[in-house]
């Protein structure tokens, strides 16, 4: 399995304060599902911001899709971003666009023919239970409805990497289950999925998911599964397991 993201000794500091994230070294594998957990303030959103390129690290190296992000030219970043679907904690819907046009946005940005946009957008809105609200502006939608529009927008372009920040925080358990099913389906098509959540109930739903746990800006990785390169003892354990 190829890795799609690799962090080496990454740190993030906002302004002149202490580091919010420290010594992050891990890789994310293509087609794998990850849950990111940890207490409030541990740095989950900050780590996701590094993943969806809204923050640059203060130190260390990040490789994504085989390229070094830290040294990449700024004009390369939009091309990277088009490969990443993001469900923001505060949704970040475009206020003057309808639910339909918000969901259509990634397809239009990627230059998909206008005649090929309506069907998938309607299908996606139906999946998240909003087929009747296609023409509604975000301000007229409830928090949970806005969240579902945000999710539909994040997944419609079948991104290589999906990053979701508490994507089920505003919906009931039944809808949470349905949305997770959507992520799972996308993951089965090859998208690497990273979901930050406090919802322990969700974690048990994807049996193949790996856990990433942040505590005060550091990743605890008891299994060594995220470590790159593997520690010698992980390598020998893996060899023992395969014999
Ligand atoms: N733009 C910023 N400027 C300064 N400090 C920030 C900024 N964003 C986050 N922080 C600080 O970084 C730390 C980690 O915040 P972050 O939002 O990443 O945590 P979190 O694990 O996502 O929390 P929660 O679960 O409550 O959403 C917090 O102490 C926060 O105050």
UniProtKB/TrEMBL annotation:
CC annotations in GO: plasma membrane
Classification via InterPro entries: AAA+_ATPase, ABC_transporter-like_ATP-bd, ABC_transporter-like_CS, ABC_transpr_LolD-like, Cell_div_FtsE, MacB-like_ATP-bd, P-loop_NTPase
Keyword Cell cycle found: yes
Any GO BP: cell division
Keyword vocabulary terms for this entry: ATP-binding, Cell cycle, Cell division, Cell membrane, Membrane, Nucleotide-binding, Transport
Keyword Membrane appears in the UniProt entry: yes
Protein name (record): Cell division ATP-binding protein FtsE
């Amino acid at each position: 399995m190829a890795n799609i993201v690799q962090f080496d000794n990454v740190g993030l500091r906002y302004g002149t304060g202490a580091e919010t994230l420290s010594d992050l070294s891990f890789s994310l594998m293509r087609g794998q599902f990850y849950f990111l957990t940890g207490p409030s303030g541990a740095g989950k959103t900050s780590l996701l911001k590094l993943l969806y390129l809204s923050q640059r690290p203060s130190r260390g190296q990040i490789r994504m899709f085989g390229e070094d992000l830290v040294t990449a030219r700024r004009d390369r970043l939009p091309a990277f971003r088009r490969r990443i679907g993001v469900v923001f904690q505060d949704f970040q819907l475009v206020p003057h666009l309808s639910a339909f046009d918000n969901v259509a946005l990634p397809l239009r940005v990627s230059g998909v023919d206008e005649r090929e946009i309506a069907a998938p957008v309607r299908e996606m809105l139906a999946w998240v239970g909003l087929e009747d609200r296609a023409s509604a502006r975000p301000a007229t939608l409830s928090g949970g409805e806005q969240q579902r529009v945000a999710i539909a927008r994040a997944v419609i372009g079948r991104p290589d990497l999906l990053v979701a920040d508490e994507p089920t925080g505003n919906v009931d358990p039944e809808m949470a289950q349905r949305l997770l099913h959507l992520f799972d389906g996308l993951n089965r098509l090859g998208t690497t999925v990273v979901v930050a959540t406090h919802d322990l109930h969700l974690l048990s739903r994807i049996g193949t998911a790996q856990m990433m746990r942040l505590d005060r800006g550091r990743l605890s990785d008891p299994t060594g599964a995220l470590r790159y390169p593997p520690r010698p003892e992980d390598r020998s354990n893996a060899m023992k397991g395969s014999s």
